[in-house]
Amino acid sequence: MQNDFYERVYDLIKLIPFGRVTTFGEIARTLGQYSASRLVGRAIQNINKFGNVPIHRVVFKNGGLCKKFALGGVKAQKHLLESEGIEIKRYRVDLQKYGFYFW
Predict the structure, then answer these.
(1) pLDDT class for 79, splitting at 50, 70, 90?
(2) Which of 6, 37, 66, 84 has its CA 20 to 30 A from that of 45?
(3) Buried/exposed code over 67-97 (b: 16+ C-beta within 10 A; e: otherwise)
(4) Collapsed DSSP state (helix, strand, coil) of residue 57
(5) Residue 103, domain member (yes or no)
């Protein structure tokens, strides 16, 4: 059951457009699991196919980057987002400008 949830998380992350971000909570809500933000984070930490799932596009509800980002920490996530044209200020993304929502 958990593996199925993880796969659904990865499928949603693949839908986040280049140059946009979404939050752990947004992914959980879209999957109908309103209180599963941490489980979304666990799915991202356990991913084993980095190449085709742009996990760097997932941030905290306040736009904050992830200190324990699975691909090398917060600086790596910052670099990946900036390479897509996303402005980072104080390790935060402006969700009003760059946020993507599935609904």
Answers:
(1) very high
(2) 84
(3) eebbeeeeeebbebbeeeebebeeeebebee
(4) helix
(5) no
